[in-house]
Structures are given as structure tokens and as C-alpha cells.
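Contributing new records

If you add data, match the layout below exactly. Sequence lines come first and carry their own label; structure lines follow with theirs. Keep one chain per record. Anything else will be rejected by the validation script.
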Amino acid sequence: MNKNLLIIAFATLSLLAACSVTKPSENALSHLSSSYTPEQVGYCYGHGCTLKGELRLDETQWGEIQAMFKNKDLDPEAERLALAMAVGKLEYYAGSQNGTSGDKAGTFMGDVGDNQLDCIDEAVNASNFIGLLQRDGLLRYHELRRPILRSWVTGNILHATAVIEEVDPLGREEGSKWSVDSSFFKNGENATIAPLEQWQTGWVPEGGVN
């Protein structure tokens, strides 16, 4: 087999392997926790959760997050909007406490140093933030699911996202799943929420960076 054929074969095998990947590594997933509280939340950064910091919210900061959901007659769509804003606000607080407030949009920013987040960091952090909201009873129409990866599609790179699922607040019936992706825009911007099936096609929001 000549050199060119070897390269093609290797690329094909790599592509097939990538397409079989549906979740971040176990190391990254080990940073998910259902025991975090507003006073102490683990925070990933440095690409692939290689560095670990903390987010500590005082009563005023957590009260601002709660106010996005409480005393409002939210329908599922409005709850998703509030969730997108809350994830962005929590990321802003975390950035100021961990030196990552300069985090740029996008996932592969190798020239910006350890204070950059990639999509794995973002997916784990967003999942932990959503878990806080859920445990505080702030989410009525959605429940947190495990973060996932999308495969190589039409030239797009592998990319991770947090995931929520719409549920019936009475019957707890499963419904549509949604991507909660905070990596498309810079630190502190609202997360992007899109139907998971759409996100899995390689979709990137207008103005966002993959």
C-alpha cells in the first residue's frame, strides 16, 4: 500500500471512530456533580477540564439567578430563555473568580493559554450550573441530561454540549431534547439553546464560533 493510500485509510478510520463518540471522556464527566451548592461549584477550564477552579455565589448573586425564574408565569419557551440567561450570568461570575473572564468564543483557541475554555469545559460547567437550578426547584418544564458530543459532520469538528429535556410538569413525560451550548460566544454571553437534533447536524448560531 502506498503512502497516499495509508493516509486515506488512517483518515477514514479516524472519521469512523469519531462518529462513534457520543459523550465526553470519563475524565471530563467525572467533574459533573449533584452535590454542588451555590456556595461551592466546581468549574472546569484550560481545555478538557484539565484545570479545576470554583465558583462561589453569595446571596445577592444567587438571588439574581433565582429572580430569573421565580414569580413568573413561564412557559417552556420562556423557561429556556431564562435558563440561557442564567448560564451566561453564572459563567460571568465564574470568569471573574477564576481568571477566565477573557474566554473567547469558540473551542479551539490554542494560542490564548490556560484561561481559555473549550467545548468540553463549557458543556460540563453548563451542566453543573443547570443542576443547581434544577435542585433549587427553579426548572418546571425541563430536566438535565448528560452532556453529549456531535460527530464529524460536513467538515465540522467534534463538539460538546449540555443537554436538557422538556418534561410534563405533572406526568413527567419525556419530550424534546435541547442543546444548551455556552461555547459559541465569549464569556458571560447568554448560552445558545437549540433543538438537539438541529445542533447535531453541525449547526452554529449566527455570529457564533464553533
